[in-house]
Design goal:
Layout (H helix, E strand, L loop, with lengths): L5 E7 L6 H11 L3 E5 L5 H17 L3 E5 L2 H4 L4 E4 L6 H8 L4 E6 L2 H7 L5 E4 L17 H11 L3 E3 L8 H6 L4 E4 L1 H4 L4 H10 L5
Parallel strand pairs: 1-2, 1-8, 2-3, 3-4, 4-5, 5-6, 6-7, 7-8
């Protein structure tokens, strides 16, 4: 299974719209991969949410990944892990060879550790962001380009990304761009999501 290029959508239970509405917006915008982020929910609630979202995603040919929760990811197409979560090897053992496994990275050393261990990485924060406190200062586009070169596979740019940043991210070799505030904080989320998604459609 290969990570689709372009907008890496986020279905975030902390966003203004309910998760099902967020998924609908992202699918209508042409997004083909999205991550369910449900930090404040119980394990049972996350599993129920993922099971409820998967049919619509698959009917549209999109991949649905789960943030952090390997058990919930067993009902989807894969999992995205943070540095403090279970190791990628544990996710692979639980989810099998076809699942997509991603890992958030913030330093060159973490990128090196990810080589051969996961299918793709997230790297950042590239820019400053108020959505998630990673504990790391903004890395910048040059560091993103270095991460792309070091990892040798798909890299998702994360952190404070606006539409105007996309040419620089693409020039740095980003495979995808994960966006929360730029979509769900926009006056018209569907229009914003379409712009982020269409930027990757011609590559």
């Amino acid at each position: 299974m290969t990570l689709p290029r372009g907008l890496y959508g986020m279905v975030d239970t902390g966003a203004p719209l309910p998760p099902h509405a967020q998924l609908d917006v992202l699918l209508r915008a042409g997004c083909r991969v999205m991550q369910v982020r449900a930090k404040g929910e119980s394990a049972d609630a996350r599993r129920s949410l993922v099971r409820a979202l998967v049919p619509a995603a698959r009917a549209s040919g999109a991949l649905l990944l789960v943030n952090d929760d390997i058990d919930a990811a067993a009902h989807a197409d894969g999992v995205h892990l943070g540095q403090e979560d279970a190791p990628p090897a544990a996710a692979r053992a639980r989810l099998g060879p076809r699942a997509l496994i991603g890992w958030s990275t913030h330093t060159a050393g973490q990128v090196e550790d990810a080589r051969g261990a996961v299918d793709y990485i997230g790297f950042g924060p590239v820019f400053g962001t108020a959505t998630k406190d990673t504990g790391y200062a903004p890395r910048g586009v040059a560091a993103l380009a270095d991460a792309v070169a070091r990892f040798g596979g798909p890299v998702v740019a994360i952190g404070g990304i606006g539409e105007g940043d996309l040419p620089a991210l693409q020039a740095a070799g980003a495979w995808c761009w994960a966006v929360i505030g730029g979509v769900w904080g926009a006056p018209d989320p569907l229009l914003a999501a379409r712009r982020f998604a269409s930027a990757g459609s011609g590559r």
